[in-house]
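hiii so my PI (J.) wants the whole complex modelled not just the main chain, which honestly fair. so below is everything: four entries, each one labled with what it is. i double checked the lines twice but i was tired so who knows lol
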Amino acid sequence: MSASSPTRYAYLGPEGTFAEQALITIPAAEQGVRIPARSVPEALDAVRDGSVDAALVPLENSIGGQVGVTLDELASGHELVIVREVVIPVQFVLAAGPGLTLGEIDSVVAHPQASAQCRRWLRAHLPGAAVIDVLSNGAAAAAVAAGESPAAICAPIGAARHGLPVLAKEIADHPDAVTRFALVTRPGPPPEPTGDDLTTLAVYISHDEVGALLAVLTELAVRGVNLTRIESRPTGERLGRYAFFLDCTGHVAEARVGEALMGLRRICADVRFLGSYPRAAQPGESPVPQPARTTDADFAAATAWLEKLRTGR
Amino acid sequence: MSASSPTRYAYLGPEGTFAEQALITIPAAEQGVRIPARSVPEALDAVRDGSVDAALVPLENSIGGQVGVTLDELASGHELVIVREVVIPVQFVLAAGPGLTLGEIDSVVAHPQASAQCRRWLRAHLPGAAVIDVLSNGAAAAAVAAGESPAAICAPIGAARHGLPVLAKEIADHPDAVTRFALVTRPGPPPEPTGDDLTTLAVYISHDEVGALLAVLTELAVRGVNLTRIESRPTGERLGRYAFFLDCTGHVAEARVGEALMGLRRICADVRFLGSYPRAAQPGESPVPQPARTTDADFAAATAWLEKLRTGR
Amino acid sequence: MSASSPTRYAYLGPEGTFAEQALITIPAAEQGVRIPARSVPEALDAVRDGSVDAALVPLENSIGGQVGVTLDELASGHELVIVREVVIPVQFVLAAGPGLTLGEIDSVVAHPQASAQCRRWLRAHLPGAAVIDVLSNGAAAAAVAAGESPAAICAPIGAARHGLPVLAKEIADHPDAVTRFALVTRPGPPPEPTGDDLTTLAVYISHDEVGALLAVLTELAVRGVNLTRIESRPTGERLGRYAFFLDCTGHVAEARVGEALMGLRRICADVRFLGSYPRAAQPGESPVPQPARTTDADFAAATAWLEKLRTGR
Amino acid sequence: MSASSPTRYAYLGPEGTFAEQALITIPAAEQGVRIPARSVPEALDAVRDGSVDAALVPLENSIGGQVGVTLDELASGHELVIVREVVIPVQFVLAAGPGLTLGEIDSVVAHPQASAQCRRWLRAHLPGAAVIDVLSNGAAAAAVAAGESPAAICAPIGAARHGLPVLAKEIADHPDAVTRFALVTRPGPPPEPTGDDLTTLAVYISHDEVGALLAVLTELAVRGVNLTRIESRPTGERLGRYAFFLDCTGHVAEARVGEALMGLRRICADVRFLGSYPRAAQPGESPVPQPARTTDADFAAATAWLEKLRTGR
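here's the output for the full assembly
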């Protein structure tokens, strides 16, 4: 995302899902070209081969957790970096065929995660309806549009795209559910630090060493770098071999983060840098306070002092 | 699993998937009643309401990672405990309609995780075939049996159950892929320690405290308890709030594990004990060595010494 | 200090030093028999062989630091325990021969530590006087009494005992200097916990292990036991082999201290318990606050919870 | 010790003590001017005011422990640095007046630490002799030379200087006892790294913070810097306020030591650098092995990697 902003964006399709809804919150993407990809790997490969400038893919959901395929794809193949995160509410609606009322709905199509997140609403309002699994939220809306099902649980944008009437809004059990997406580009200079940034890493530890994960967390803690998220993913070698995905407070340009990264680089079997980018604060959240004595000024003072010791003044 | 062994077993269905294949490796289950459940929640609820004695559900896959729904279900609702783990190879086959040869296959049904794990084989042997997503490995085999598709990627047991010819075996990209299942019962006395056990926990930390996860790992390390796995799951409250699932070496009956558990209980917002059970060593694996000075005898000696100090001998 | 209070007390002599002054602050000693010892080893051996019930010996001085011989003697030979600490101000006086004025003093006898602590006063008020080293504060006063020197730096009690005029009071550079003494007995039940106690330990670590001292401090920190003092003493084997003397907050009867002691006992080459006793708070000091979640009630709740897990309720 | 080697040396006198014996093991000092100082402060002040180029003062003894006055003087006043350590055996002799035999000795003068270190020999060979305390080993030899005492416990150099016959050699209870001296200069470029160096620091921690010493040790451990010695000294403010003197493996010019120093500088109330200098290995000792992944090359590789991340390659 070096000189000019990207103009061609891939996103996890199909059209009418939350990924598209998230993408258009980015002004440049709202005005750029948006291309749905059939899968996360396809979206990221499009970045790697240069056919798009950036891709928006889901990282995690506050109910469903990690999106494993995204983590795996970021950790393998040519390096990519996250330059922005987008967090959007996951508000499901019940979209129905034209003219139908709630009392007439005897079956609902839904992605299994969507129906799981609306379980309480379904039990209360459609206790007798059969729930039919489909493979995406977009596919659910499309099935109703095609007349294959009387109703669907889907994203608001899915109903809108197909012109489907919405019988009920905000039907998820957790009204505050959100999904976090990452805007991913080829490596380049990271976005400028804002004072409230995150840095994402994939670290691989040597599993023959007791306490290796403890050592990783200590490298961060000693430099006043907080961990806001840790996910493990299998490396595929065998059970018990994991890569750890860490979200840390701070920006690679900051001294404390830089020193922590170098520490991890030294002690870990491998470290992949996955980007430093502004934190998308959720409503009501304030910036993560930086621990005392870890500012760039603190590091600069210590460096100047060391230089004097080494040269004898 | 108190007095007598369970005789009624639920498992994650449908029939013909890896869960059934895993269940029949347990002799008592091989002779008992086996009931497929439509989902992990359904299987576990059957244990909770007493309609079965135990349920076998997937915990993690060496390629796909955590099975989030299982972790979430174990962490909520009435308490359940793991009494046994079963690890089985995930060897996919290509099952086809009667009389078909590989050259005649122009489309394949598969669960998306299954087709992802066989990507290289598909590219090499069926480069022109369309891949149609279905919702489970069992459903893939059933679709071929029903004549809805010429071929399916499925488990060996799925092909066998429907009497489908197998055109290719061991087609997964990672030939050593395994899935780990847990046999779950209502709480009761844990299985006897064997000297090579695991203890599974769900811990909730207070996220207002910096370094809370570091403190959790330190409680374990100080007592010589190794961590073999850590998974995070969202608590559903908001992004950044996680439960951590820990697999630790050792058995709750051991002094070192007991003291570590009590330490976690004191410092964590909540701890849920999810069972101590024999480790299912994978081929070529030896027992995890116990750190020096952490045997029950070491703890007993220290306890006796303390008692003398407190009473003045 | 088992059943009845001690009635025969040894203290580090000679008469007229700070140790005697400290001893008579203990009511029972004020009424008991007080016997000066020529050295710390002699005082402690008198406890060991039963010729006295207790001995008062110096532990540290806020200016001069550790009293090495006391630490060494407590760590070797038959075990002894501290049952009480006494902290007294170290206020030096200038005592002179009868009839002399400050202007007539051309030389001063003093223990080297005493003259070091009064350096500024001497420079200001007796810039021309020679300072002659003697071997104790008591010997300094005695030398003036014997007419061997015109003046001495000594303890108030030393001047009083010999009936020497005091030409100047509170002449130490640090007006707040204090010495801390320990009342030592043969092992027995420790004094009752008061809620503001100290526990003193001597720990020996294996010096072939990197980070052994870090491990010791971690055992304490994990149980919420604070360290208020750490001293190292050579073990005599060779340079680089030390015993560490630790003063910790809390009483051996408390659960957190007990568990920490057991942890040290397991990981250290050796641990010697040197007593739990009430902290002698200095003026203006408040009790050391106990970290959250480390009360005996917290430990009891965790123990009860563990018991339920182990028995299956 | 900048450009040319020092030519004027102070040492802790009087003549004929172990400090002089240690000083002449340094070739440049053997040929330079050697000036006895009456005290450690006097020796160090002579360096500070430029009247000598360097001073040799005792740091610790393998039996008696820390030399508190040296530590206190190094930590206060104008900064000084250690440029060399000298470790010499402390072998006491019994020196006597001319013509006397062991059977004729009825009293012995000795510094209290010297007689303490020869207790067993005295009990075995001179059980009836009175032991008279004097203020230094040099003073003991001088007293015999002056005819004031029939015999003295002193250093070999003390007997030689006064031409006293030696009735018994190596009379110390610990035949391997050693004293460690420091050669101290005004600040300047430290000696070149040798691959087996020590770095000495005085650190002051904020005592309102729980676990502050644990944090100090963690800063070192994280960078693979071992601690070979830790001493505490009172700061003089009040009981419970200490400065810690640390000897660490490695040289300030090394990356790992530099980063650890900067870490301490950031988290401690104050840090005083007291020098990097070659370790004086004791007989049979090998260099302290450097932990894996902490070489300057490891740090340089990590720095280069970080630079690439920050610039986007």
